[in-house]
Design brief:
The chain is an alpha/beta fold. The protein is 32% helix and 23% strand. It has helices at residues 45-52, 75-81, 98-108, 113-126, 142-154, 172-183, 196-202, 220-224, 227-232, and strands at 6-14, 20-29, 34-38, 60-65, 68-69, 82-85, 160-164, 188-192, 205-210, 213-219. The chain has a 6-stranded mixed sheet, with helices on both faces. A 4-stranded antiparallel sheet has the order 2-1-4-5, with helices on one face. Strand 4 (60-65) and strand 5 (68-69) form a beta hairpin. Helix 3 packs across helix 4. The protein starts with 5 loop residues before the first strand and ends in a 24-residue tail after the last helix.
Length: 256
């Protein structure tokens, strides 16, 4: 399915308390695209991501991954194709060892143990965490947990990688390693984050969500240069695009 697109058409969702979460979402991701999904707290980013892996079902509209509609009867196939990394790695790491966690997905999609073991080693090596294989997850650092959480998804060989706040709670070195890791992936990627500098580094295209609606969808640098748009959506430009606090000049031209 690597050549397939991800498509949401007029998707709407309302929380059980009656609060609108998503309204009229039209979004298409092409194969190999790396797209940033940004918005203030409560904009609907996590809710949108959960629709892509079938954790939520749209109350209006439709979603398809390639030629497969995201409905109850296709969830097994969809979850083989769309891998989601949650904001909190502890939501994904619950087995006695790292190897057990990474093997959980492959075994549950029916792979024989020998092939699952090969995928464990390959996925952990890909994220630079093979040395953690026998460690219990609760003994890992935040950056190590993030890497292992990504490995649990990669072990299932998804075509689409969906990540919720991938750089949350990472120290600068761990964040830089994450950026290097994601830059090397050829997956279609959708990254929901408050880290606009990360989006600027990794995503040529950005979508802004505001109160459950898409307010902008286009080239990342153009969107981040639109101060009025960002302000109206409760956002600020990436730090690297903000004016110098000393002289007020653009940071690129600033001598400070």
């Amino acid at each position: 399915m690597s050549h397939h697109i991800v498509e949401l058409k007029d998707v709407g969702y309302v929380y059980p308390d009656g609060t609108p979460a998503l309204t009229g979402i039209d979004l298409t991701l092409l194969h190999g695209e790396s797209v940033g999904l940004v918005g203030a707290n409560g904009a609907g980013k996590s809710t949108l991501l959960r629709h892509l892996c079938g954790a939520h079902a749209p109350q209006t509209g439709r979603i398809r991954i390639g030629d497969t509609p995201v409905v109850a009867s296709t969830l097994r196939e969809v979850r083989r194709t769309v891998g989601m990394v949650f904001q909190d790695p502890d939501d994904q790491l619950f087995m006695p060892t790292v190897a057990d966690d990474v093997a959980f997905g492959p075994l549950n999609i029916g792979l024989p143990p020998a092939e699952a073991a090969q995928r464990v080693d390959r996925a952990l090596e890909q994220v630079g965490a093979l040395h953690l294989k026998k460690r219990p997850p609760y003994r890992l650092s935040g950056g190590e947990k993030r890497a292992v959480a990504i490995a649990t998804v990669l072990a299932c060989a998804p075509d689409v990688l969906v990540m919720d706040e991938p750089s949350a709670n990472l120290d600068p070195r761990s964040r830089r390693l994450l950026i290097s890791l994601l830059r090397g992936f050829t997956h279609t990627k959708l990254l929901a984050t408050h880290d606009l500098d990360l989006v600027l580094e990794l995503c040529e295209r950005t979508v802004i969500l505001y109160q459950g609606r898409i307010m902008a969808d286009g080239p990342t640098r153009e969107i981040f240069a639109d101060r009025a748009l960002l302000d109206s959506c409760g956002l600020e430009p990436p730090l690297c695009m903000q004016d110098c606090p000393v002289c007020g000049a653009d940071r690129i031209a600033c001598p400070h």
